[in-house]
Amino acid sequence: MKLASFLAMAVLALGMQSRAATAQELVLAINEGVTYQDGGPASERYRPFLQMLSKELKQNVKLVTVDKYSTFEKGLAEGKYDLVFIHPAHVGLQAVKHNGYVGLATAKGYTDYRARVMVMKTSPLKSLDELRGKKIGVPAVESITTTMFTAELRERGFQHPENAYTATRYQDAVPFMIENGFVDAGVTGSGKVAKAWVDKGGRILSELKPIPIKQFLASGKLSEADREKVKNLVLGMSENEAGKAALAKIGMTGFVPWNTAVMNDAATRLGI
Fold this sequence. Notes:
Layout: H1 2-24, E1 26-31, H2 42-45, H3 47-57, E2 61-65, H4 69-77, E3 83-86, H5 89-98, E4 101-107, E5 116-119, E6 136-138, H6 144-155, E7 165-167, H7 174-179, E8 185-188, H8 191-199, E9 203-207, E10 215-219, H9 224-236, H10 241-249, E11 255-257, H11 260-269
Parallel strand pairs: 1-2, 1-3, 6-7, 6-8
Antiparallel strand pairs: 3-10, 4-10, 4-11, 5-8, 5-9
Helix pairs in contact: 3-9, 3-10, 4-5, 5-11
C-alpha cells in the first residue's frame, strides 16, 4: 500500500509539473503574407529568435504559424497568442483596436507599404474615379493590398467595389491579367512588380497613401514589464551580432518603434 501510494503521489506530482510547464509556455504566432518567405521551415528560421525571447522572458516561447487570415483573426479575438508578428496590417490593427493587443514595433523597410494601380500605357483611364464600371485585377481579396485599395474606393463613394474584382493569389500575376485584356486595371503592393510594369512600358494610374505592415504585437494579458522586455529586445536586435543573425534568418533587418499616431491614422483609413 505504501509503495502504491508513493507511486500515485509521484504520478500526480509529475502531472502537476507538466501542466505548470505548459501554462508557463508562451506562444508567438506569425503570418508572413501569401507571397513572402521561401527560405525553409519557419520552425528553423525562427529558432534563434525564439531562443532570444525565451531567455529574455525566462519562459519557453513556442512558434505557431497561422497562414489563413480568418484563422488569425479568430485566434486574436480569442486572445490565444501571447506575442504576434503579423504581415497584414488590417488584421494586426484590428487586434490592437478591439482585441486587447499592444503594438510594440514594426519591421524596418515595411513602414511605407503602398498599393499601386497599374494600367496599359494606351489606357484612356486618367484617375481612380474613372474605375467605376471597370474590371480590376487584385491580389487575394483578404490581402492588405486589396484591403487598402478597397478602402480608398469606398472613400471615393464606390458602392461594393469588390464586385469589380478579379482576384489572383500572387501579385506578379496581376500584370498578366492587364496585358491580356482580362481586366482594365490591376493593383499591386509590390514595388518590384510596379517597377517591372513601368520598365516594360506600362503606366501607374495612382499610388495610394502608405500603411506600415509586418507588426510586432504583445497580448495585453502579458505584464507591462514583460511587454517592455520584448519591445526592448526586438528594437535592439539590429545592434548586436546575435540579434542580426536571428533577424537575417527571418529575412528582416530590424524593427522600429510602434508609431501610435501613424497606426491610428491607418486604422481610420482602413475603416477599423
